[in-house]
């Protein structure tokens, strides 16, 4: 079956649905990151009022806010300010995993069918095969690459069909360094600790370099594998000029 097995009308419907999803995400980003309709200070005060349960409450609240595209570094820094570098790192990591799972779930519900319909059966089968083999490490690698918003990537992963368990495990592994970095920076502000800030910056630099290198290697490997797959794919009789005519 070819990649063009979806009728033209259906492809336009799928494209329109995906465009609507993107518009909603961009609108959410504008509201929380530019217009700042959510007062983070008020959120911290509300969480602090819960007493001993504050770390668990902050995990749940941050996971929801992260899925709503509140910038993760702001939430992580708040965790460091409230709970310190040690407890705060675990709180940030828990919230990060929660955000990844929630965003991937919403992305799958909103865009998976349309993504598959737009790509067609053959491309979808290739993506499913790639996810089965490399989905977990794709999530890990994305978390290491600087400059790619984790939550947006989680929505895309969900729309592409990455299982939630891969999102949870991959985000836990891949987000650990940056969870420490942003939480430690927040804690260093509260504790006025320059060594802690320098340590966090060093970890961030090492992680960024390693992530960029790994992304480059992974991209080259993916291109090589795709090229090998295309070269070994059998051709149809109409594509082979030496094939006998059936006319």
From TrEMBL:
Domain VTT per the UniProt entry, residue ranges: 70-187
Keyword Cytoplasm included in the entry's annotation = no
The domain of life is Bacteria
Stretches for region Disordered: 224-247
Q: Which InterPro entries match?
A: TMEM64, VTT_dom
Q: Which UniProt keywords apply?
A: Cell membrane, Membrane, Transmembrane, Transmembrane helix
Give its localization.
Answer: Cell membrane
Membrane topology reported for the UniProt record: Multi-pass membrane protein
Q: Which positions, given as ranges, span the membrane?
A: 15-35, 56-76, 82-106, 152-176, 196-215
Instruction: Note one Pfam family from the annotation.
Output: VTT_dom
Primary place of residence? membrane
Q: Where is the composition biased (Low complexity)?
A: 232-247
GO annotation, cellular component aspect? plasma membrane
Q: Which PANTHER family match?
A: GOLGI APPARATUS MEMBRANE PROTEIN TVP38-RELATED, TVP38_TMEM64 FAMILY MEMBRANE PROTEIN RV0625C
Can you tell me which family this protein belongs to?
Belongs to the TVP38/TMEM64 family.
Q: What is this protein called?
A: TVP38/TMEM64 family membrane protein
Which organism was this protein described from?
A: Nocardia bovistercoris
* Species lineage: Bacteria, Bacillati, Actinomycetota, Actinomycetes, Mycobacteriales
């Amino acid at each position: 079956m070819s990649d063009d097995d979806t009728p033209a009308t259906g492809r336009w419907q799928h494209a329109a649905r995906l465009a609507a999803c993107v518009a909603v995400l961009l609108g959410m980003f504008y509201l929380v990151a530019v217009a700042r309709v959510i007062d983070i200070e008020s959120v911290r005060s509300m969480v602090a009022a819960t007493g001993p349960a504050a770390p668990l409450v902050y995990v749940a609240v941050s996971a929801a806010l992260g899925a709503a595209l509140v910038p993760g570094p702001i939430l992580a820094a708040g965790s460091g300010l409230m709970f310190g570098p040690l407890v705060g790192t675990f709180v940030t990591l828990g919230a990060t995993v929660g955000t990844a799972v929630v965003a991937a779930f919403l992305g799958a519900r909103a865009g998976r069918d349309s993504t598959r319909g737009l790509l067609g059966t053959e491309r979808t089968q290739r993506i499913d095969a790639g996810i089965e083999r490399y989905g977990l490490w794709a999530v890990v690698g994305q978390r290491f690459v600087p400059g790619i918003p984790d939550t947006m990537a989680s929505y895309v992963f969900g729309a592409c069909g990455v299982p939630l368990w891969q999102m949870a495990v991959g985000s836990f592994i891949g987000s650990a360094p940056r969870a420490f970095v942003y939480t430690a920076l927040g804690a260093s502000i509260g504790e006025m600790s320059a060594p802690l800030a320098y340590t966090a910056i060093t970890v961030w630099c090492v992680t960024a370099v390693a992530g960029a290198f790994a992304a480059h290697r992974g991209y080259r490997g993916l291109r090589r594998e795709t090229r090998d797959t295309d070269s070994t794919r059998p051709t149809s009789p109409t594509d082979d000029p030496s094939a006998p005519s059936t006319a």
